[in-house]
Structures are given as structure tokens and as C-alpha cells.
Design a protein that fits this description.
The chain is rod-shaped, with a radius of gyration of 31 Å. The longest helix has 29 residues. Helix content is about 40%, strand content about 25%. Helix 1 crosses helix 2, helix 1 crosses helix 4 and helix 2 crosses helix 3. It has three domains: about 80 residues, Arc Repressor Mutant, subunit A (Orthogonal Bundle), CATH 1.10.10.10; about 90 residues, Periplasmic binding protein-like II (D-Maltodextrin-Binding Protein, domain 2), CATH 3.40.190.10; about 110 residues, 3-Layer(aba) Sandwich (D-Maltodextrin-Binding Protein, domain 2), CATH 3.40.190.290. A hairpin with a 2-residue loop joins strand 9 and strand 10. The strands form four sheets. Strands 7, 8, 11, 12, 13 and 14 form a six-stranded mixed sheet that branches. The chain contains ten helices and 15 strands. By secondary structure, it is an alpha/beta fold.
Length: about 300
């Protein structure tokens, strides 16, 4: 027998109120609708559950037994509904994010630390990844990527302003081997390349000249998927590397790295926080969006 959960919920209210009218008022339906539902439930079970007079409603022995069995489950369901409604009202729960490894400003300690402090009931779970996948299908609340690779059906909120990629090297490397004057000269230099995953070709370095974009397939002497290692190697004089200006900025400011080929490195739309365009955005995600707009 397939249980009629709606009918059981109606019966539970009748049992609590000992009144068809009061049960109907709590549900916002007519007394006749409650009566018809109770009649169908009793016909399905083949036994009377209530005794009804013009003045009162009482439970039969079968009704008392059924109510005793279902009351805890009904209470649990009501509590679950209340908890879910509470999630709608305030930011809480786990917030799962998939973030590009080079989204420096978003991954900076202060931004995430201040968000966590402001919303202690939100548990932030961040996967740092450069793989491209469907964040909704994989169970993430949101992601952070460069704007150019975000699907058109997503809501996208800027993390910061425009970005650009730079080629950099250590002053010692520049002094020893010279700096290339054009990207095509990179073929004659030692390069430190990046790949997002094993068995994937190294990233092609992207430039622009006279408004036209082009890429260079360098032949790196060292290739890795770790930007931190690329920076360490470049500082140590292992060669020229290429990445987001934000990633290199602290070492450029200290003089440990110097930009090369800057005239061929235009600015472009930077990183965005993106999420599904569903209508009801969870408070935990809405809080992150608001935090980003205030502090991004």
C-alpha cells in the first residue's frame, strides 16, 4: 500500500486539534476538504480512525495507535521544514566554491577572513582548481574564473577590475641573457611554462600587437601546474615565466622580478564570481556576493 502522506498529515492535525474545523483553519482549507480527506484515508485503511459527533471529534483505538506511530515522524518533518526555512532567512551552512588558482584577490587571506568573521555560521569549502567543469552538476554553490570562460547562462559578479598577463624574469637572468624585444624571440630563451593537468599541452603564452591577439607556443625547459613553483624558479634565475600580473606583483614591487614584453601584454576582463541563474539564491551565497561588492 502506497501511503498518502498528505492524508496522514491531515489526520495528524485532526488528532491534535480534535476538530475538523480547527484542522481546516490551520491548513487554510475548508472543513469539507478535511472531511473528504479523512474519509478517503479511512477507506484506504479499511478501518475508522475518528468518532465524530456534532460537538466533538475523538480517536478510535485504531486512530490512537496510528497517531502514536506517525506523530514523531510528523514532528521531525515540521522541524526539517523549519530548519530549511531558517536557511532561507540567514546565512548558514556549507558554501562550496571552485576557484581558479590564479584568482589572487579572491584567494587573498583578508577577503575570505573578513567574510568568515562576519558569517560564523557559514562553513566555507574551497576547491582550488583550474579544471573547467559544470559547477552546478558537481554540487558547487559558485565558482571564480576569468570572465571569458564563464558560460552565458550564469550570473557573474566582478571580483576586481581588468587584469593582464605578464612575462617576467629575474634581473640576474635579464642581465645575463638579455630581454626579448618581441614575443617571437622567446624561442631563443629558457622558459618556465604552466599546464593545468598531466598529459595536457603547456599553456600558450598570449600577446597582442596593433590590436591583434596572437599566442606563442613556447618550449619550456621546466613545466608545472604550480604557480608558486614557477615564481620561485623565475626568482632563482631559471628563465622567463608567464602569468597573471597580480600573481607576480609582490616580487615585482620588491625588484626580485622584472616585466618583459610589457608592450605586448594588454589588459582584459578579469575574474568573476559566477553562479547559476536560479531565482532563489541561498542566503549564504547572497552574503558572499554582498561581501564581494563591498570589499572586492
Amino acid at each position: 500500500m502506497q501511503p498518502d502522506l498528505n492524508a496522514l498529515a491531515v489526520f495528524a492535525l485532526v488528532a491534535e486539534e480534535r476538530s475538523f474545523r480547527a484542522a481546516a483553519d490551520r491548513m487554510g482549507v475548508t472543513r469539507s476538504a478535511v472531511s473528504q480527506t479523512m474519509k478517503r484515508l479511512e477507506e484506504t485503511l479499511g478501518i475508522a480512525l475518528v468518532q465524530r459527533t456534532t460537538r466533538s471529534v475523538s480517536l478510535t483505538e485504531a486512530g490512537e495507535r496510528l497517531y502514536a506511530e506517525i506523530a514523531p515522524a510528523i514532528a521531525d518533518m515540521r522541524a526539517a521544514m523549519e530548519t530549511t526555512g531558517d536557511l532561507r532567512r540567514r546565512p548558514r551552512g556549507q558554501l562550496r566554491l571552485a576557484v581558479s588558482s590564479i584568482a589572487e584577490r579572491f584567494l587573498s587571506g583578508p577577503f575570505l577572513a573578513t567574510f568568515a568573521e562576519a558569517h560564523p555560521e557559514v562553513q566555507i569549502d574551497i576547491t582550488v582548481t583550474d579544471e573547467e567543469f559544470d559547477i552546478v552538476a558537481e554540487g558547487y554553490d559558485a565558482g571564480v574564473r576569468l570572465g571569458e570562460v564563464i558560460e552565458q547562462d550564469m550570473i557573474a559578479v566582478p571580483v576586481a577590475g581588468d587584469e593582464r598577463q605578464l612575462a617576467v624574469c629575474a634581473p640576474a637572468y635579464r642581465d645575463r641573457f638579455g630581454a626579448p624585444s618581441h614575443p617571437r624571440e622567446l624561442a631563443g630563451h629558457r622558459c618556465i611554462g604552466w599546464r593545468r593537468a598531466p598529459k595536457v599541452a603547456p599553456y600558450r603564452w598570449e600577446f597582442a600587437e596593433n590590436g591583434k591577439e596572437f599566442s606563442v607556443a613556447v618550449a619550456p625547459e621546466i613545466t608545472t601546474n604550480d604557480m608558486a613553483l614557477m615564481i620561485k624558479l623565475a626568482i632563482a634565475g631559471a628563465g622567463i615565466t608567464f602569468g597573471m600580473e597580480e600573481s607576480f606583483r609582490p616580487w615585482i614591487d620588491r625588484g626580485e622580478l622584472v616585466p618583459v614584453l610589457g608592450d605586448y601584454c594588454p589588459r582584459f576582463a578579469g575574474f568573476y564570481l559566477y553562479y547559476s541563474s536560479r531565482r532563489n539564491v541561498a542566503p549564504k551565497l547572497r552574503a558572499l556576493v554582498d561581501h564581494l561588492r563591498r570589499h572586492g
